[in-house]
Design goal:
about 450 residues; Arc Repressor Mutant, subunit A; 3 domains; 23 helices; about 0% strand
């Protein structure tokens, strides 16, 4: 099917022969067709039309046995809202997708795990990193069956950022490699190109993506955007003002095109990336102007993480803007939000300048991001699942036995244990149990 191959078909038969004849067809046929056409409309830059179609299609989704069609519809509706920076509406749709999947297909169903990846995306960009990580780990169990490319992006990309934040470069590399291999084996140009761009952005060695000889027009357009992201990321680590002068008009044109397509979220992320590049290359006035355009949107939407991902370059820009509000007249609410997000901005004056080779070395260096990202939970705030696993570890169960007993994957058990080690400040299972008992987390 074109949708799963990340292709947008010019064939209008689904509209003409299914949607317009919906009253005489089985609800399943109409439901599936509506979801496919919704995908096409989203990627034609027709978000409002896609949204109206999903509202209309709900009557058919709910008549279908099983949850998959309705879950997919809710996921697409949430994606449209997220692109529009309507985070509350995206949350409504994605949480409803998960709830529907659990009620109609079960908590361990494909549909439930599919929707978890998107709920994780929302939590991640809101700065709720620990909760997002847990959901991404569970969604990752789907592997290459994680739906359309738009649903795969956050699981691989955001989880890699989280691994880097944890100081786990090997783990970040492994996640990106999985995403890249999925893109290559399934011939999903947009996915593998994004993974290569992400490698470069995180400071890994990466080869610039190249266009397949038989690429379609859409694939060319997609990879051109990822090539720009790759090139911008490269300029975070290698100062080259001449290259910046060349690429800047192209990047600004991409921002305009994304706005036209209705993907305001991706435009915002790319604008933050461009601001960081300008900062690293000494164009501070342009960097300030570029960033202050998006700060009110980040604050209004409640999504700090795109700024946090920016590392030191974005921190320096924010520091200047906080210290000189008279130069851009932000709302008091926005300024207070910035101060809360970057509470140590004054100390940045002592950090290396953009001329220092270390200053732009890594876009998301763990020691910098950890200063601003969500703190790990205290032992008293352990989740019910974490407590269950602690009790089973104390009882002598192996990882395999814990996985079987709780109906979760072995990798998920390992992830929970790593998280418990970090939270409790230990490195072994035995120490984990002893520490938990000393803190009265375990009886």
């Amino acid at each position: 099917m074109a949708m799963y191959q990340d292709r947008v078909s010019d064939d209008h038969r689904l509209k003409d022969e299914v949607l317009e004849e919906s009253e005489r067809l089985h609800p399943w046929t109409v439901s599936v067709a509506a979801n496919v056409v919704t995908f096409f409309e989203i990627h034609r830059g027709r978000g409002p039309e896609a949204d109206r179609l999903q509202r209309w299609a709900q009557q058919y989704h709910r008549q279908v046995v099983g949850s998959f069609s309705e879950v997919y519809g809710e996921c697409f509706a949430g994606l449209i809202a997220f692109h529009n920076l309507d985070i509350a509406l995206a949350q409504h749709h994605w949480e409803n997708a998960f709830r529907t999947a659990c009620e109609r297909s079960g908590r361990q169903s494909h549909a439930a795990k599919l929707s978890l990846g998107l709920v994780g995306k929302l939590l991640y960009h809101r700065g709720e990193v620990d909760r997002a990580e847990e959901l991404f780990e569970e969604a990752l169990q789907l592997g290459q069956r994680a739906g359309v490319v738009d649903f795969m992006f956050p699981v691989y990309e955001s989880l890699a950022y989280i691994r880097i934040r944890r100081g786990d470069a090997d783990g970040a590399w492994d996640i990106i490699e999985k995403g890249e291999q999925a893109g290559l084996s399934l011939q999903l140009t947009r996915l593998w190109a994004r993974m290569v761009a992400t490698k470069e952005r995180l400071g890994f060695e990466a080869r610039r993506p190249s266009l397949p000889l038989d690429a379609t027009g859409r694939e060319k357009a997609n990879i051109e955007g990822e090539l720009l992201r790759y090139d911008l990321s490269h300029l975070l680590h290698t100062e080259d003002p001449a290259a910046v002068a060349t690429i800047r008009p192209q990047a600004e044109a991409l921002l305009v095109e994304l706005q036209k397509q209705g993907n305001h979220f991706q435009s915002l992320r790319d604008q933050i990336l461009l601001a960081a590049v300008l900062e690293v290359n000494g164009l501070t006035e342009a960097a300030d102007e570029m960033l202050r355009e998006v700060l009110p949107d980040c604050e209004a939407a409640g999504i700090p993480q795109p700024l946090v991902e920016g590392g030191r370059p974005i921190q320096r820009i924010v520091s200047r803007l906080i210290d000189s509000p008279e130069s851009w007249h932000p709302r008091t609410r926005t300024l207070d939000w910035m101060r809360k997000l970057f509470p140590t901005h004054a100390a940045l004056e002592e950090e290396p300048s953009a001329a220092d080779p270390e200053a732009g070395r890594t876009f998301a260096r763990p020691d910098e991001i950890d200063r601003f990202a969500t703190l790990a939970p205290k032992p008293k705030s352990l989740s019910e699942r974490e407590r269950e696993i602690l009790h089973l570890v104390d009882a002598g169960y192996t990882n395999r036995e814990i996985a079987e007993r709780l109906f979760i994957g072995r990798n998920t058990v390992k992830w929970y244990l790593r998280k418990l080690y970090r939270t409790l400040g230990v490195s072994t299972r035995d120490d984990c149990v002893r520490r938990a008992k000393s803190l009265k987390v375990l009886p």
